[in-house]
């Protein structure tokens, strides 16, 4: 999994959702409303890592919502590592895109919900973890339940769509496999860390650096090492193993690497490609499934593992769409020629139930 080069990784992640399109929205439609709310998530409460259970949601309400008694489908969008609900809304300009699409009748009125899954180590990987909290449950239970209680949704899986980018694309696939009864359509944009590859393999020197480090600062913001620690805290937590409270797939004794098959097994339980052997049937129940990835992604593992995932879906008989687009990790997201407007919204228009 050739993630970004170590020193540049965090810098590049900071541009995770950047749109490189200068296209302007072509209409001045009625505006929807963006609200940001906070609630206490029971799936996160009491976690040993000290992650805050008071979580934010950024929510788009379509034009006319307050004046109407109508109920609406909901698209849930999961952000990537480093980012949050509010930064993703601002960067992609979801509100402007939805205003334009609804105003031009490209899509009927719909709610959009962005949950905040940022953590101390910058990413939850939407995994249920004994250390950081149950983030899969957070999305499928806490967030959906809160939104259905407080907003006029159509509270049915067929009227709920799930999407996300990078870590969020990874999470969308994972949540869909574990909670097929909650979401009816899924679109994973450039999903990251779907499987083992050349930057999660057991020969990486980063594991030695992790073993020597006493805290996050001593990782020296080495991007790949930080991501591996974050994955470990999510996939193989160990409350008796400070300072990072995780078991890693590789440890060193007298300079000799030792592979821990038990940890490998734990990671396999969380990697979407490995999960397919047990959860393909869940994905078969979806009304629509799509993944995409950039051919020139600087996260070198993404194109290969996405193609591998698609081929395994095909082998297992899971109907889906898979597309390699011209561009990098987060190119052409915003604007009316961006992938959110031209691909994601039409996908959900087709595969969500609108009444």
Corresponding CATH architecture: 3-Layer(aba) Sandwich
- SSE run: HEEEHHEEEHEHEHHEEHHEHEH
Q: Indicate the percent of residues in helices.
A: 25-40%
Strand content: 15-25%
Number of DSSP-assigned strands: 12
Q: If you consult CATH, what is the topology?
A: Rossmann fold
Count of separate structural domains? 1
Mean pLDDT: 90
The CATH superfamily is identified as Alpha/Beta hydrolase fold, catalytic domain
Distance between the termini: 42 Å
Largest sheet: 8 strands, mixed
Shape: globular
Describe the structure.
This protein is of the alpha/beta class and 355 residues long. The protein has a single domain, classed as Alpha/Beta hydrolase fold, catalytic domain (Rossmann fold), CATH 3.40.50.1820. Helix content is 35%, strand content 17%. It contains 11 helices and 12 strands. It has helices at 6-13, 85-92, 94-103, 135-150, 167-178, 206-212, 223-235, 261-268, 272-284, 301-315, 339-351, and strands spanning 33-40, 54-61, 74-78, 111-115, 128-129, 133-134, 160-165, 185-189, 250-253, 256-259, 288-294, 321-325. The chain has an 8-stranded mixed beta sheet, with helices on both faces. α10 (301-315) links the parallel β11 and β12 (321-325). α4 (135-150) crosses α5 (167-178). The protein is globular.
Name its key features.
Rossmann fold; 355 residues; 8-stranded mixed beta sheet; two-stranded antiparallel ribbon; alpha/beta; disordered N terminus; 11 helices
């Amino acid at each position: 999994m050739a993630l970004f080069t170590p020193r540049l990784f965090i810098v590049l992640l900071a541009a995770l959702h950047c749109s490189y399109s200068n296209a302007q929205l072509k209409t001045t439609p009625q505006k929807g409303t963006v609200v940001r709310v906070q609630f206490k998530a029971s799936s996160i409460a009491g976690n040993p890592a000290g992650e805050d259970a008071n979580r934010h949601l950024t929510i788009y309400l379509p034009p006319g919502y307050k004046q109407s008694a109508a109920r609406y489908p909901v698209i849930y969008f999961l952000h990537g590592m480093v980012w949050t609900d509010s930064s993703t809304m601002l960067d992609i300009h979801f509100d402007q895109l939805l205003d334009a699409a609804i105003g031009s009748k490209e899509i009927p009125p719909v709610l959009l919900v962005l949950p905040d899954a940022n953590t101390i180590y910058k990413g939850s990987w939407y995994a249920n973890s004994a250390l950081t909290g149950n983030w899969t449950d957070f999305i499928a239970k806490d967030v959906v339940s809160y939104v259905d209680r407080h907003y006029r949704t159509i509270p049915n899986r067929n009227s709920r769509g799930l999407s996300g980018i990078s870590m969020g694309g990874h999470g969308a696939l994972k949540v869909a496999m574990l909670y097929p009864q909650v979401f009816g359509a899924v679109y994973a944009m450039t999903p990251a860390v779907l499987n083992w590859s050349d930057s999660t393999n057991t020969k990486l020197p980063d594991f030695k650096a992790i073993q020597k480090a006493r805290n996050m600062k001593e990782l020296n913001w080495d991007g790949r090492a930080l991501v591996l620690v974050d994955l470990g805290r999510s996939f193989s937590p160990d409350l008796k193993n400070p300072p990072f409270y995780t078991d890693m797939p590789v440890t060193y004794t007298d300079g000799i690497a030792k592979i821990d098959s038990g940890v490998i097994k734990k990671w396999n339980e969380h990697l979407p490609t490995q999960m397919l052997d047990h959860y393909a049937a869940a994905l078969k129940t979806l009304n629509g499934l799509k993944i995409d990835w950039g051919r020139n992604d600087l996260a070198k593992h993404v194109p290969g593992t996405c193609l591998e995932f698609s081929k395994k879906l095909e082998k297992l008989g899971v109907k889906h769409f898979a597309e390699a687009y011209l561009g990098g990790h987060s190119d052409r997201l915003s604007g009316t020629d961006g992938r959110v407007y031209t691909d994601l919204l039409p996908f959900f228009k087709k595969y969500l139930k609108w009444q």
